[in-house]
Design brief:
alpha+beta, Glutathione S-transferase Yfyf (Class Pi), Chain A, domain 2
């Protein structure tokens, strides 16, 4: 069985959970908090992922890290149902959306970077919030415009079927809500989020539904 090393609050882990659920794959979850004080001592995890981050997917003897690499691997090894559109233009658009989230927004706004801004560079809480809002707004503004100009009618990013792009958008919006970023400028993205979260594959993947999530 597939095994996913992840963390409930990690949006990168959230992406992979969505993809696994959309493909109907069974998997076990092993929790690993990469920013906990004990993380540096978890040498057994760093043997499978030297970067020490999540997620890492274990498939037999193979360990794969980086969420987009995992999504591509799943698409190539378990092609049905597909995450990517059939046509090259649609696949390129899905990847463009995914890379905007994973390479332009997320690296600047992950918890390790935000903690570095305050703990090492001495920025205050308001400066930290402004940093987060600046970069996430810039990225999601671009995706909103892209979907308006090149997207397809339908409940999801690229039409009638949820897939790769939706698996990137929904976790990013989870973080947007968590950090209380104004969302009025993204009506299409919010519509997609609402539609996706009605589906069992997305609902099961929600951070609050994970076994390592804090309980009230």
């Amino acid at each position: 069985m597939l095994r996913l090393h992840g963390f409930w609050r990690s949006t990168a882990s959230y992406r992979v959970r969505i993809a696994l659920n959309l493909k109907g794959l069974e998997y076990e979850i092993e929790s690993y908090n990469p920013i906990s004080p004990a993380a540096e001592t978890r040498t057994e995890y760093r043997r499978i992922n030297p970067h020490g981050l999540v997620p890492t997917l274990i498939d037999g003897d193979l360990a794969i890290s980086q969420s987009l690499a995992i999504l591509e691997y799943l698409e190539e090894t378990r092609p049905a149902p597909p995450l990517l559109p059939r046509d090259p233009a649609g696949r390129a658009l899905a990847r463009q959306i995914g890379l905007t989230v994973a390479c332009e927004i997320h690296p600047l706004n992950n918890v390790a970077v935000l903690n570095y801004l305050t703990q090492d560079l001495g920025l205050g809480d308001e400066q930290r919030r402004n940093w987060y809002r600046h970069w996430v707004t810039r990225g999601l503004d671009a995706i909103e415009a892209l979907l308006r100009d090149r997207g397809q009618a339908g409940p999801y990013c690229l039409g009638a079927t949820p897939g790769y792009a939706d698996a990137l958008i929904v976790p990013q919006l989870f973080n947007v809500h968590f950090f209380d970023v104004p969302t009025a400028g993204w009506p299409r993205l919010l519509e997609i989020e609402r539609n996706c979260l009605k589906l069992p594959a997305f609902d099961r993947a929600r951070p609050e539904n994970q076994p390592d999530a804090p309980r009230p």
